[in-house]
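Technical appendix A lists one of the benchmark inputs used to test multi-chain prediction within the project. The record comprises two sequence entries:
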Amino acid sequence: AQRVTQPEKLLSVFKGAPVELKCNYSYSGSPELFWYVQYSRQRLQLLLRHISRESIKGFTADLNKGETSFHLKKPFAQEEDSAMYYCALTGAGTALIFGKGTTLSVSS
Amino acid sequence: DAGVIQSPRHEVTEMGQEVTLRCKPISGHNSLFWYRQTMMRGLELLIYFNNNVPIDDSGMPEDRFSAKMPNASFSTLKIQPSEPRDSAVYFCASSWRGNTEAFFGQGTRLTVV
């Protein structure tokens, strides 16, 4: 069965500190992995996907098939990064499923 | 395009009443999803439509929940009868293919008292 696990419910860091939001997945085929973000009072939106291999707002995520992980990283956190982050997975013919989410809180 | 449109934005109802949530997907998208968001469970997939046909409804919690998509531009999620434990934010999302980027509506915050 496909599953997405985000072990941390809350991650609190200081401004300028490195951030890593963990995501592990379980899927029998070749998955597509995504990170979605929900800022306060805004709708959920795509942050990045593994196939594009791009950096968005300073965030990057590398798919590690050996460890079945897709951790989200940023070297220097900013206060505007405070939000709820969801890791998501999909595959051929399957809907997008999400982890339980991690709240990132960045304080000065 | 205004994006995915959900109505109402907020709904407060009494236990036992019928609740209907509505969604208008982005024009041209052929996949539609209903999700429920709670603090305890995060974002749970309730049902997934492709070309107006339900593909996966394994996430629908009980027979009290039903969803329809009569055409490509409209979907409803109905709860009858509603219970306090149904209180959550319900999101609708659409994509042009089921395994590509999903675009979300603003959500409907349902409170059942």
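Chain B has a mean pLDDT of 94. Chain B has no helices and eleven strands. Comparable benchmark entries are summarised in Table A2.
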